[in-house]
Design brief:
Strand content: 5-15%
CATH architecture of the largest domain: Up-down Bundle
CATH superfamily of the largest domain: ABC transporter type 1, transmembrane domain
Mean pLDDT: 83
Subcellular location: Cell membrane
Organism: Paenibacillus agilis
CATH topology of the largest domain: ABC transporter transmembrane region fold
Bound molecules: adenosine-5'-triphosphate
Number of strands: 10
Strand order of the largest sheet: 6-7-8-3-9-10
Number of domains: 2
Structural class: alpha/beta
CATH class of the largest domain: Mainly Alpha
Low-confidence stretches: 577-581
InterPro entries: AAA+_ATPase, ABC1_TM_dom, ABC1_TM_sf, ABC_transporter-like_ATP-bd, ABC_transporter-like_CS, P-loop_NTPase, Type_1_exporter
Main location: membrane
GO molecular function, one term: ABC-type oligopeptide transporter activity
Shape: elongated
Helix content: 55-70%
Amino acid sequence: MMQYFTNISGGNVRSLWPTGLAAILDGIVRVFPAVLLVDIFNTMYMYFAEPQFGLDTTRLWTVSILLFGWMFISYWTFSILYDKSYYVAYRQAASGRLELAEHIRRLSLGFFNRRDPADMTNLLLSDYTQVETTISHNVPQLISGIIMPVFAFAGLMFLDWRMTLAMFVALPFGLLLLWLTNSLQERLCENQVRARNEAASRLQEYLGGIREIKAHNMGGDRFQRLRLSFQRLKETSIQLEAILGPLIMGAMLLARSGMTIMILVGSYLLLDGSLTLPIFLLFLLVGTRIFDPLTAVLMNYGEMKYSAFSAQRIMDVRREQPLQGDKNINPNGSIVFERVTFSYNEHALPALKDVSFTIKPKTITALVGSSGSGKSTVTRLISRFWDVQQGEIRIGGQALHEADPERLLQHIAIVFQDVYLFQDTIGNNIRIGNMNATQAEVEEAARRACCHDFIAALPQGYDTPVGEGGSTLSGGEKQRISIARALLKDAPIVLLDEATASLDAENESAVQQAINELVAHKTVVIIAHRLKTIQHADHIIVLEQGSVSEEGTHQSLVLSGGIYAKLWGLQQNAEGWNVRA
Ligand SMILES: Nc1ncnc2c1ncn2[C@@H]1O[C@H](COP(=O)(O)OP(=O)(O)OP(=O)(O)O)[C@@H](O)[C@H]1O
């Protein structure tokens, strides 16, 4: 139970205290009117039994005023409970989501290799909503549903222990039924949540890949996957309700059967004169008051099981260790790879094997090699998106695995092969490079990256909104915007991954010029398939299947007659290729 509260509160059980206290107060206040009602009944009963003594109107008035007072107190406690539970729930969900999003940002990218993006969306939206509902509705009901019987039990035992035991005798059997079937319930909830996440992933895949699905006419196949996932969701949901429903109903009936037992016992005790009618009535009134919230707790039980699983999923991600390190690096020093071996996961072959090289400060180093040889992996490791398994990477003498990941990235500007633009204006997308940049600085960077003219020609200029992922711009336009970002960042280390890949011939030379500005006096690592673009690099490292096969300058590599020389020869010949019918 404690683990449950720890999980739903995101590890901060103290935040549930106000809700808990308000629910306890509410539970106590709700038992109170039964006592007053019995007192009214008792007064009336005495009057009809012995009319010669007259009606005790003072007592009747006092009790009625107390009942009125109780109405206000219960309104007050209920509004406290309402306020506290909703406030805590929504604050917890909002801050929890933000904290988790921030936590995820600090994790190694290896985490995303293991997790489906749609699963993460579900976690941040559905799972949190589930926990939110639990804190706002189920937890207060659980607490007041437990507190009321506990207080009532203690109070009623003083009045008549036989009736009290009769009232509660069946309750343990109801709870035992739930306890015995606990693992079955957990399995059912888990299956349903998994099926829900799978359906959401397939839906995201279907919508995200709609262009490919249309282009390759693969609607049937992909739709079948989507259909199967929704079918599985339907099956697991029905299974959950069909099994959990009768179980909870059974537990509820068992608990409530205590009332019947109590009425039977009470009738016999009344007959043999060892119980008075007012006390019997008191038990009847308190009994219905206790069993209603208790029934509500059991009704919510299924939902609480469900949220326990959601909370567990959230906690699992929160427990993922972010990249550690607090050392600052000297970005103007050399970047050294020393016997680095790295694989993306324990089952995959190493993407880099025993790789060693040095990138001197303020030089341009080009990474060359066939597709999959590990070029992008090198740049990802310099940015510390992952930590290496063997060997060491150092920048300015500082080992990267001890470096502060946030501060490290402040020293690095990256132009990715696949540019992602946020759903924001073009100006703000460039400003990501430097959030404090003025409009004039943004425009200057855009001019240098050869994108000012096309932006200025748009009706809203720099305020033009960009579709999610940059869907409203061409590949070349996106690429130039990302170069503008890098120019604005003005970081001492620049990583260019196929930066001119999606530019047309007309723009390429202009952007090449912009890149020349970007890389001036910087330590640059550039990946290029077209060797023509990097022939003037200070140093060229050739990778083959995750290992360094040769390195040197363009001249020395061409002369040595190795892989680079062959690639160079092939690309020279391919300059004038064309499509033949
Ligand atoms: N996120 C990833 N998860 C698992 N394996 C990956 C991941 N990224 C790359 N790899 C694998 O690591 C190896 C090296 O990939 P990398 O992207 O570094 O090659 P590359 O030389 O940059 O290729 P390209 O020129 O096609 O971009 C490949 O076998 C690739 O399949």
